Amino acid sequence: MPSPGWEPGALVHRQVRERALARPDAVALTDGAGAQVTYRELLRRWERLAGALREWGVGPEVPVAVRLERSPDLVVTMLAVLAAGGVYAPIDDTCPEERFAAIVTDLGAPVLLTDRETPRRVGDLVARVAHPGDAAPAGADGPGPVVPHPDNLAYVMSTSGSTGRPKGVAMTHRGLGRLIRWQAADGPGGLTTVSFTSPGFDVTFQEILGTLATGGRLCLVSEEARRDPEQLLAVLEKEGVERVFLPFVALGQLAQAARRTGRFPRSLRHVVTAGEQLVITDAVAEFFGALPGCRLDNHYGPTETHLVSSLTLGDDRGGWPRTPPIGRSVDGADVLLLGPGLTPVPDGEPGEIHVRGAALARGYLGAPAPTADRFLPDPFADEPGARMYRTGDLARRDADGLLHFLGRTDDQLKVRGYRVEPAEVELALSRCPGVREAAVGARTLADGVRALVAYVVPEQGAPPSVSVLSAALRASLPAYMVPARFAFIDALPLSSTGKADRRRLAEVPLPEPGDRTRTAGDPETLAAEVTAVWQRVLGHDEFERDEDFFDVGGDSLLAAWVVTELSRLAGREIELSVILRNTTVDELAAFLAAGPAAPAAHRPPSELITLRPGSAGNVLYLFHPLGGELLTYRELARRMESPVRVLGVRWAAGPAEAGREPSLADMARAHHEQIRAVQPEGPYLLAGWSFGGVLALEVATLLRESGQQVAFLGLIDANPVRDPLSGLPPAETPYRALLGQVLDEVDRRAADGEESLDVAELAADRDWVGLMGGAPAVGVKAAYLRRSLAMARQSMGALAAHTARPYPGDVDLFQAGATGAATRALLRAGLAEVVGGAVRVHEVPGDHTGILTSPHVTVLAGAVDGVLDDIGKGNDSDGS
Amino acid sequence: MSEDVSRESQDDLYLVVRNHEEQYSIWRSDRPVPSGWETVEGPDARENCLGRIEELWTDMRPASLRAAMAAAENKNS
Q1: CATH fold of A1-135+147-218, please?
Q2: Distances from the Cα of A85 to the Cα of A53, A63, A88, A170, angstroms
Q3: Torsion-angle region of residue A455: left (phi > 0), alpha (psi -120 to 50) or beta?
Q4: Residue A336, min C-alpha distance to chain B (Å)
Q5: Domains of chain A: which residue ranges?
Q6: How confident is the model at residue A767 (pLDDT cuts 50, 70, 90)?
Q7: Rounded mean pLDDT of A371-397?
Q8: Which residues span the domain enclosing B33?
Q9: Which class for A656: exposed (0-12), middle (13-18), buried (19 or more C-beta within 10 A)?
Q10: Taking the model in full, what pTM does it have?
Q11: Can you give the pLDDT at residue A27?
């Protein structure tokens, strides 16, 4: 198809294909877990998926909805959709169901590619829901390949819309092609690049396609590493990363982490920041001072045009301005600065940025009026009929021709790099019960974090609580659109035009998380300090003091980190379980204020902790795995929907002195005693993962022996006679020796004065990490690691010496589907030797550790729910 | 600043304009229509013009793309 200045070779996926054919054995992708994908394999996988997409009706102008974690599958999918001629339409990971459904409806996509379970109401909107790995090779009589026209759409990106509905920016192959072409010409190609950006952000194309089109290696990082700058630093060093694209906030955090740890990733050569005003803080200046070979670029461009301008900061690092300009326009994106009446402004004067050229998106998908409103006739064009995009951004051009960003002409906000239309949040707020009126703005909070703030005029009577509002918004908006602070006011101040007066709103005092005038050690001061720790660990400040850590993005890894930080803060060792019992800032502050607990004379070694509240009449007990702790169950407890209270059973005594180690039967007896103290009568519901399952089985035996009924015994990839990873008898596994070696290494380093350990390095052999139920966070104190490793080794010894007694009841086995078929059969046979009743097998996708983490934990939770629901129904019918 | 009131007021009148690619936009009626664009309707209030565009612009693909896709379709069938 003829098109001036264009040839099919300019299609980005074609460029990647050429690279793949030229160097098929080069590594295209690596993930943090050591997996790698060559260009040959990548090409094979994306062409197979592209063939399948063609058979499913995908072709030019046909969108494919994509909801995937950052993974090789995501990269395969992006390339496959482009190669099938279709339109790649990623949907934000944090998007709640309602919004997800609205976006899928607006797209009209026939296919949704996803790696997680899809709510039925969303699944019903598309003809096909598939996993990218499910594609069968295309048949010979299929529709065959297609070469998209440069003006066909390449992708659709959802952005916040002022009408209360997200807008889909529809970008063409021409626009994407010029971006990647510019990127390739702008610096050395083939750089090892981290994939950091959320798939719903357009920088993802620069990372993924910009890297693969020049034959570089793309390094995918885990969600944990994205959120934890110290882990990200470790990944950058370990993987020898050369290039990274970061929003300014993340760059600032990375620089602070480098300063804190003294670790600077020497391999870095190119840092690109975009999304909001770059600020050269002291930490950022220090970071680049320590990396003289690393270049820093500041990019500017709205989604409607993608990249518009770029600035490479100069060699004179001491002379970097605190707020650098956004540079000069790049190829394919011409900048006009226009004043009132669409007249060009003189240099130095502020004007609104209008962009023209190949960069322009086609418009907003299926939205003619919003498109016509922003994509205007270009009165200065050489080419008649050309359009320009009105950005709403203000800038001035200095004497050197550099553009300086000055702000917005309208209300649109930028928070953590995300674009937020306040009207969209205000509309969602106005739908919350108890809200009469609301306005939303962005404010810079203490410590320089810019965050969304809601000003709420409550209905008369009972004002809604912050946690209720925040939860309601979280159900309809992505996380980044949920305000971090809520101020309740009597009425909205109005401007002369009758609109909310944002200047006066910006002066409304905000409820602060802590009052710093108090003395150290009182709950208020401590709450402020705990808040600061949470902000550091979570990477955001969008939580209230009464919100649950695990509801605002916390997980077990981050919890371990918080506890490490709190120990540092309190100057004493704080147990990991503290954050399970004290899950809010206020509770943690109160705990710290209460001071060190007096050592109890006879503290029982078994301890129960509420993992999920619920009806006290219906309790599911989850037994600790090898390390004695319960964090590993947090996800499972949260995902379960059965009306049960979930209590964790933990080994509070920790590892014993040599020669005084309890046997597995001793441990089970202690747990049995504790459970009977809390719930004297059955029926009991018990379950456990790995070692915890063996404990649950032993406790179930004790309960039955004392005449109690066990209604549910769930073994979650657990087996009393064989190790669930290797299928070997517990006494023959190599893991105990392995843990011994790791312990020796920890001790050796502690003796060398290393207080915090680089777990990433210690975890090079990941087998033991799996046994522990996941890797501890970077910077975990040696004392913690030592304790949990020693406990794990002790438990393993107890298991090896244990002989399971025959159990006459029924058992539900939740077996990891990723274990080899032969091993799985061996494990079932082993279980049948011990269990006299029925063994019901529920297969769960994922490996031994993976079944407890996202996304597989959802399947596990559903399977456990299913069994518990059946039991509940049985009880009901018995009672009636 | 809110809603660029500095530049446009509620009373301004607009035209519905269209280019050779059959892409629509709006243009203030007191300014000369840029070359390559023709007036379809108006002058009218901005909201009315946008409302008309919502009705008129039913296929947002540029005209040249529509032609190219139709040609490719014919060749294949």
Answers
A1: Rossmann fold (3.40.50)
A2: 9, 10, 9, 14
A3: beta
A4: 16
A5: 1-135+147-218, 421-505, 523-593, 606-728+803-877, 731-800
A6: low
A7: 95
A8: 13-76
A9: middle
A10: 0.62
A11: 96
Could you read off the pLDDT of A398-451 as tens digits, one per residue? Answer: 999 999 998 888 888 877 777 888 888 888 888 888 888 889 988 877 555 678
Buried b (16+ CB within 10 A) or exposed e, A822-861: ebbebbeebbeebbeeeeeebebebebbbbbbeebbbbbb
Chain A interface disruption, residue of B5, B23, B26, B50, most A CBs within 10 A: B23
Rounded Cα–Cα distance for residues A364 and A159 (Å): 10
What pLDDT does A518 receive? 33
Cα B28 → chain centroid: 12
| Residues A443-473 pLDDT 10s | 877 555 678 899 998 887 666 777 778 778 8
Per-residue pLDDT band for A684 (boundaries 50, 70, 90) equals very high
* Chain A CB contacts of B33 below 8 Å: 377
| Closest-CA residue to A624 (of A714, A689, A540, A571) | A689
Question: Picking from A138-142, A325-329, A561-565, which range would have the lowest pLDDT averaged per residue?
Answer: A138-142
User: Which residues does B contribute to its contact with A (CB < 8 Å)?
Assistant: 1-7, 17, 19-21, 23-27, 31-37, 49-51, 53-54, 56-58, 60-62, 64-65, 68-69, 71-72
| A580-601 residue pLDDT tens | 888 899 888 888 877 654 333 3
How high is the pLDDT of residue B45? 94
A683: preceding bond cis by omega (within 30 degrees): yes
pLDDT tens per residue across span A286-308? 999 999 999 999 999 999 999 99
What are the structure tokens assigned to A77, written together? 């999918």
Let me know: does A196 contact A245? Beta carbons within 8 Å: yes
Residues of A with Cβ-Cβ distance to B32 under 8 angstroms: 379
Q: How far is CA A101 from the centre of its chain?
A: 21
Give chain A's end-to-end CA distance (angstroms, integer).
Answer: 74
Q: Percent of chain A scored above 90 by pLDDT?
A: 40
- Topology of domain A606-728+803-877 in CATH is Rossmann fold (3.40.50)
Of A88-92, A338-342, A476-480, A833-837, least confident by mean pLDDT is: A476-480
DSSP H or E stretch at residue A839: strand A839-844
pLDDT at B3: 38
Q: Which chain B positions have a beta carbon within 8 Å of A378's beta carbon?
A: 34
> Given this chain, do its domains A1-135+147-218 and A606-728+803-877 carry the same CATH topology?
yes
Cross-chain CB nearest to A372 (options B20, B24, B31): B24
Rounded alpha-carbon distances, angstroms, from residue A222 to A196, A318, A517, A857: 9, 34, 39, 17
Write the pLDDT tens digit of every residue in B4-51.
434 456 678 999 999 999 999 999 999 999 999 999 998 999 999 999
Domain A523-593 has CATH 3.30.390.30: no
Look at residue B3 and tell me if it is in a domain: no
Distance CA A93, CA A90 (A): 9
The Cα diameter of chain A in Å comes to 91
Are B7 and A340 a contacting pair at CB < 8 A? Answer: yes
> Residue range A684-699: average pLDDT?
95
Q: Is A59 at the interface with chain B, CB within 8 A?
A: no
How many A-B residue pairs are in contact by the CB < 8 A criterion?
109
Overall domain count for chain B: 1
From first CA to last CA, the distance across chain B in angstroms is 56
Taking an 8 Å cut-off on Cβ atoms, the answer to whether A151 and B61 are in contact is yes
CB burial of residue A99 (10 Å; 0-12, 13-18, 19+) = buried
Q: Per the domain annotation, does B47 fall within a domain?
A: yes
Which residues of chain A does B51 touch, with a Cβ-Cβ cutoff of 8 Å?
A: 369
Distance CA A242, CA A383 (A): 41
Q: Measured between CB atoms, does A340 come within 8 Å of chain B?
A: yes
CB contact under 8 A, B50 and A373: yes
